[in-house]
Design a protein that fits this description.
about 15% strand, alpha/beta, Uracil-DNA Glycosylase, subunit E, six-stranded mixed β-sheet
Amino acid sequence: MPERARPPDPQIRTLAQLKAATMACRECPIGEIATQSVIGEGLLKPRLMLVGEQPGDQEDLQGHPFIGPAGKLLARALEAAQIPREQTFVSNAVKHFKFELRGKRRIHKSPTQREIAACHHWLEDEIALVRPAGLVALGASAARSLLGRAVPVLANRGQWLPRPDGLEVLVTLHPSALLRGDPEQREPAFEAFVADLRQAQRLFGR
């Protein structure tokens, strides 16, 4: 587990309390500039909890995870993999949006390892509240936070990796990586992403 890992906070018993706590968090600089914290949404005690990197621009403004283009692609991939979206919980490893200004546009900037580590205990609080049967790491930042070490995503995609607490983590790409890729390769990349997600079907009794 990461050096900053600690047991879940017993005073955080609901997602609303987690939201309030992360709104006030200033353990790293991101919380100071973001509009708000964005915690996960979905079913409690789900078969699957999917974890991305951090909220994007629209997520930061509206306060909901995976509502932008990457979220729409993820929803399409879950449907193609025959994973009921309503039986999942979606969240991010980092709870605030990190960006840099280019004119009036806010451009996504990847969080540092220190920022991921600073937010790690909030993610563990969330997992303790949600109590999923399995986890999906969408991209390298999520895999690092969930597994406590660097994980080569391309070498491990579609595989289940164990955590010390007994939960398993399915590793795959973040859907935004597909959106940034070669347009001519977008459909094969999407099919490979769906194939990764299909490895989670066993959690749904298929």
